[in-house]
Amino acid sequence: MTFTADSAQNFFPDISNYSTQKSSAVTSAIAVLKSLNVDEQLALLWFIHTEVGYSITPVATGPARLHLVAGLLNQIKLMSDEEQLQVMRDLIAQKNTQISRSYGILSNNTKLAFWYELSELMVQGIMILIPTGNELSQQGKEAIKALKNLGFAQKITVLRKVITDMGVNPFIE
């Protein structure tokens, strides 16, 4: 017997829905995360980072990309804690600031490298930590639950989508 996609569906009737189910879970998690207030979005980004961030290595993001974000990160490092936190909030809220515009023109992988390096600076105590002490709203708790139910690759997909949508691209109206 020849094994084809059609014959596989006879043995595994839900196989055609597998990709759709995975996509739906990711889309739903992204929608819930983006519906939260900015500080809760930051807290959930930190949660995702603690879940998968250490699996995103500088090698994966690329040494050239790290060079591209170094100037931007150095600029942020010189700011006060409150200003650093405001930069992160502005990126999420897509406020039209100089840093949001600089971030907005970066490639998707470079944006991933930016947040990887930013989180490493937080862990080292060089950058302000994302506030996590506040009680999450019910929506925030639902978002955490949705993220916990995702597989590793799905969490990476959520992280990439949220990070790439941040900032302001001055070349797009």
TrEMBL record:
Pfam families referenced in this protein's UniProt entry, alphabetically: Carot_N
Alphabetically ordered keywords of this record: Antenna complex, Chromophore, Membrane, Phycobilisome, Thylakoid
GO molecular function terms listed in the Swiss-Prot or TrEMBL record: chloride ion binding
Gene Ontology cellular component annotations, sorted alphabetically: phycobilisome
GO biological process: light absorption
InterPro entries xref list: Orange_carotenoid-bd_N, Orange_carotenoid-bd_N_sf
Classification via Gene3D superfamilies: Orange carotenoid-binding protein, N-terminal domain
OCP N-terminal domain span: 23-173
Superkingdom to which the source organism belongs: Bacteria
Sequence similarity: Belongs to the orange carotenoid-binding protein family.
Name assigned to this protein: Orange carotenoid protein
Organism: Mastigocoleus testarum BC008
